[in-house]
Write a structure and sequence with these properties.
This protein is mainly alpha-helical. It contains seven helices and four strands; from the N terminus they run H-H-E-H-E-H-E-H-H-E-H.
């Protein structure tokens, strides 16, 4: 029987986090749930800084070789982890502001966050628990 490695679970979580970070304006309940994971202080609201912290953590997991860029050089060599990594990286292509095929930490932090921005209906840079609930309710059925 095969067992999942922490690396495998990390890539699965990373793919979900990337989906929440890079999702288009049409939200899914799953992406809203992933975004809720950014609530580091557990108060039910997601502050913009918590969103940036989530992005920073995702970038650090993507930049496996520590060269300051998330790119194909960071991809595992083979297996399902390679596919999950490549899928996660592909979802972030809108973050590649200079079009060089690599995503720097600053590009990751400055990339659009349509799910957060569309959910923050009052524009206060805080996604309240009510706004997060509204995102979930507005999401198309799975």
């Amino acid at each position: 029987m095969k067992t999942a490695t922490p690396f495998k679970y990390g890539l699965i979580a990373l793919a979900g986090t990337i989906a929440a970070i890079a999702s288009a304006s049409t939200a899914s309940a799953q992406n809203a749930d992933r975004l809720a994971e950014a609530d580091a202080n557990g108060d039910g609201d997601i502050e913009w800084q918590e969103m940036l912290d989530m992005r920073t953590a995702a970038f650090e997991r993507l930049d496996r070789n520590g060269d300051g860029f998330a790119d194909s050089d960071d991809s595992p060599r083979f297996g399902p982890a390679k596919n999950r990594f490549n899928d996660a990286l592909a979802q972030l292509q809108n973050a590649d502001a200079d079009g060089d095929g690599r995503i720097s930490a600053s590009e990751m932090l400055e990339a659009p966050a349509p799910l957060f921005e569309n959910g923050d209906t009052n524009g206060d840079k805080v996604l309240s628990s009510d706004e997060l609930s509204a995102l979930r309710e507005a999401a198309p059925s799975r």
